[in-house]
Structures are given as structure tokens and as C-alpha cells.
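User: quick one - fold this with iron/sulfur cluster bound?
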Amino acid sequence: MKSDVYFVRLDSIDIEMRVEALNKLLKAVDSLVVYAPNEMVPVKLTVGDYMSAHHLDPELAKQAAGWLKGKKTRPFLFDTSVIYNGQRQNAVDHMNLAQSKGFGHDSTGVPFIIADGVLGQDGREYSVGSPEIKQIKVPSFVGMLDSLLVLSHPTGHVVTQYAGALKNVAMGMVCRPTKQVQHSSLKPAVIAKKCTGCGCCERICPAGAVSFREGKAFIDKERCLGCGECLCACKFGAIFINWEEEPLVLCRRMVHVAKFILSRFKNVFFINFAFGVTRDCDCISDKDDVMLAGDIGILASRDIVSVDKATLDQIAAHKKAALPGRRGELASRVIEFAAENGLGNPEYNLIEL
Ligand code: SF4
Ligand code: SF4
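Assistant: Sure. C-alpha cells for the protein plus iron/sulfur cluster:
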């Protein structure tokens, strides 16, 4: 049976119109999404890195949290620490960044917390039972709270091509070591003749895996975590990743991780805010980033595969630029793999409001 995806179409940068669109959607799904009185509801989102300009607007997070409070719950916003250098690598810098971007309690009316502790390593370990990824570590509330609301800003992505709800859960709801494990097949290499020796990759590498030989960067594959950060940092196209296989391995791991995490909740709901759909994700995007599809609207579903598939279909319909990465079909293969593994249904009824 197809899953329902609710869709409010809106091509506008006006925040009041976006709030109105969200409230229209929340009103339509209000009776479908039921919570126990007084229950804590974690709301997953990302505030974007310091230079990102198109990430989820905090006003929309405030509206979603207000809707949950109106349903007599105790919502809180959360994210986890990332593995690359920047202002989201630990809870202190991350919470300061969130505050400066308008995600603090004073703006949204609810707390914003970093769920994997001060250094991104606090959590509980589980065996996933998959040959692709055996052990994962997740924030300890996973498995203890019943409900989860996931707010995502869909974008392109330099490695996975597309970053939506599935990536928000798989990469955004795990502790830093599990982020590394998911990425660890990506072992880039340097194309020496293109390398200028600028040192950006060395400075950004979280693992100290980059050194220099005769003025050219060299990556120690034993030390490399596979985070892909150097790929983003190199402005000379001198970092090479084997795109033929490894991004797919990363994506398959993401599917297994997301499936495990979502299996620990009884009540999940996903909202994709397809506004300012940039070619790069909110970790590296900035105000000048290429628009993949611009402003599309808001999509929501109980089914993570349906909401991402519907979002990808809308991106294809509004496409201004190609998905990033060299494997044109990677995003749809991930949807297929997620469906094969029982994460959700790629077939959906689009209910336009
Ligand atoms: S060398 Fe490896 S660990 Fe270092 S930035 Fe590149 S991908 Fe990440
Ligand atoms: S960022 Fe690129 S050009 Fe600069 S040192 Fe690293 S590989 Fe070479």
C-alpha cells in the first residue's frame, strides 16, 4: 500500500508565507499524529554550519515546536556533533552557533541540546546485525523515548548526492564514532599533478592523515576516517575518491543505521522543508551556493522513504542544476535499497494541500 505524503507547494522566500504553509500542513496532519500527554518529543534538525545561509529557518522550528506544545507534549530540539572541523564538532561551540543562528530557547521557546554529549561520544552501543555495519553508538534517549519528529532541509550532497530525512537520521542521530564508521570506506587519494601544496586539506583533516611529500599532499589511508572533508576543502580538484563503489557503501550503511534507529521509536513523523535547495549540504553550503532546485515547498509523511522519494521527484521537476557527484543514479539507488530493507515505501500518494 502506498504511503501518504502531504505537500504544500510554495515558491517564496517570505518567511511569513513559509510559516503559513507549515501551519496549513500541520493542521492537515494534526489528527494523524498523536502523542501521549506530557511526553518528551525529540525534534531532530540541523542548524547548518556557520557559513550556511539556506538551512532550516528557526522560525519554522519554533512553529513545529509550538504545534507539539499545543498537543500537550514537552518537545526539545536536538542535533549531534559532526566529525569535521568547524563549529559543530563539540557541544559548546555547537550550542553557541545554534544560539547565534536563532535556535536558542529565547527564540524557539524550547531547549536545543546536543544529544551525544560535550565531545560527541556519549551514547549507548548496539549491534545492528548487518554485514555492512556491525556496531553503532547512538544518543542514549534512542530506545527510551517513544516519539520522534524529524525536520530536514533537503539538499544535494558531495558524496551521497542527496541529503534529506534519511541522512538526517542516519548521520545526524549517531555519536561521532558511528559517523566515522559510516564514512570509513571513503579513502581519498591526491592527484599529485593537480596539487598546489596549499595545505587546506591538511588543516581541515580531523585525523591528521594528510602529510606532504616533495610539496604535494599525501593521504595516509590507515589514519584516514573517510569523512570527505578534504574533498570539500580542495579548490583545485586534486582530491580523488573512488566514486564507483564507495559512496554506495556509505549509503547502504546509512540505510542500516536509519532502520535501526527508527525501529526504536513507536511514533515517527518527517517534515522536509524544500526551500533553498542547494547543491551542497548545510555543512559546506554558503549564501552563494548553486541552487539545485530553489524553493519547492514542504513535504511530510510518516514514511521516511516516501517523503525523500517525493522530495527527490519534486527536485527533479524543479531542477536548475544536476545532482552533485558523478553517479547520476546514486540517490535513486539509495531509495531502492532503503525500500528493499523495509525502511519504507518508495510509492506514495501525493496529497497536495
Ligand atoms: S584525509 Fe581522510 S580523514 Fe582527512 S579530511 Fe580527507 S577523508 Fe577526512
Ligand atoms: S587542498 Fe588540494 S591543492 Fe591544497 S594541498 Fe590539499 S590536495 Fe593539494
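One thing worth noting: Residues 246-263 form the longest helix (18 residues).
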